[in-house]
Design a protein that fits this description.
By secondary structure, this protein is of the alpha/beta class. The chain contains six helices and six strands.
């Protein structure tokens, strides 16, 4: 029970890496809250994780909804010990065939959403808390057709260093996980 008496918030916790992380955190004794955009999938994840998990519909690109979700978690569990800014999307954005809207949507969710997740939680992070940001091997590989995704994930890596320097006076760690390919919903959907 490595996480006994710890509270964790996981964005995008209703599928893939976020859901797997929620399972692990629950098994290790943490109080866990997850967010997601799809109520049906969020409800299914909550049922799978158990009655003590709080599941809140919130899109990380909607700052007010994100802040309300954080407030709900804090009211239920108290301040946060772990934040996993995991929510993200993929997307094929080849040169010459990509719209501005498609490119910006990936950046908005994968990079801007991560920043505002951290910003919404900072007032409620315990000293010594841990912030984990989800990046990707695409941030260092040159995979054709994935410019927006790679840029967003490289931005997360760069931003983590700045956030770490800002939060270090409170003993808050900021780390990045950089997963490789996996067979998760994001891959199965082909996004």
């Amino acid at each position: 029970m490595k996480l006994k008496n710890k509270t964790a918030l996981i964005t995008g916790g209703n599928s893939g890496i976020g859901l797997a992380t929620a399972h692990l955190f629950v098994a290790e004794g943490a109080q866990v809250a997850i967010t997601g955009r799809d109520q049906t999938r969020l409800d299914a994840a909550a049922q799978e994780l158990g009655p003590e998990v709080v599941a809140i519909k919130a899109d990380t690109t909607d700052v007010e909804a994100l802040e309300a979700a954080v407030a709900t978690v804090v009211k239920k569990f108290g301040n946060l010990d772990i934040v996993f800014a995991n929510a993200g999307i993929g997307g094929f954005t080849p040169v010459g065939k990509t719209t501005l809207t498609a490119f910006e949507e990936i950046l908005k969710i994968n990079l801007t959403g991560v920043f505002f997740t951290v910003q919404a939680t900072v007032p409620y992070l315990n000293n010594g808390a841990s912030v984990v940001l989800n990046s990707s091997v695409h941030s260092v590989l040159g995979v054709p057709g994935y410019s927006a995704y790679a840029a967003s994930k490289a931005g997360v890596r760069a931003m983590s260093r700045v956030l770490a320097s800002e939060l270090s006076p409170r003993g808050i760690r900021v780390n990045v996980v950089t997963p490789g390919g996996l067979y998760a919903d994001l891959v199965r959907r082909g996004s």
